């Protein structure tokens, strides 16, 4: 498992939102023109650490009647912050009390 990708809920109807989000994250943590100290894993590694820290690692999505409770235009994004990432695994932990049909 690697920790430089995040799962997030965001607007998912307009693909321009994803493009704009990537553009803004790259402005906040650019790969070029910054003299990072941590460079041993490539030019995209330290910016990936910054982006993953800003976005956070935990997310809660309510489940109601066995279905994710998302807004009309929302979707779940896998945000990969490395340019040449390998295979990823997602770990999902469900918390709560299961209900039984009456």
Please tell me the overall pLDDT.
85
Main-sheet strand order equals 1-4
What summary fits the major beta sheet?
A: 2 strands, antiparallel
With helices defined by DSSP (H or I, 4 residues minimum), what is the helix count?
2
Topology as a string of helices (H) and strands (E) = EHHEEE
Task: Please report the total strand number as a whole number.
Answer: 4
Instruction: Give the strand content.
Output: 15-25%
Uncertain runs with pLDDT below 50, 5 residues or more?
A: none
Distance between the termini: 40 Å
Q: What helical percentage do the residues reach?
A: 10-25%
Shape call? elongated
Q: For the CA atoms, what is the radius of gyration?
A: 17 Å
Query: Quaternary status of these chains?
Result: single chain
**How does the helix and strand content classify structurally?**
alpha+beta
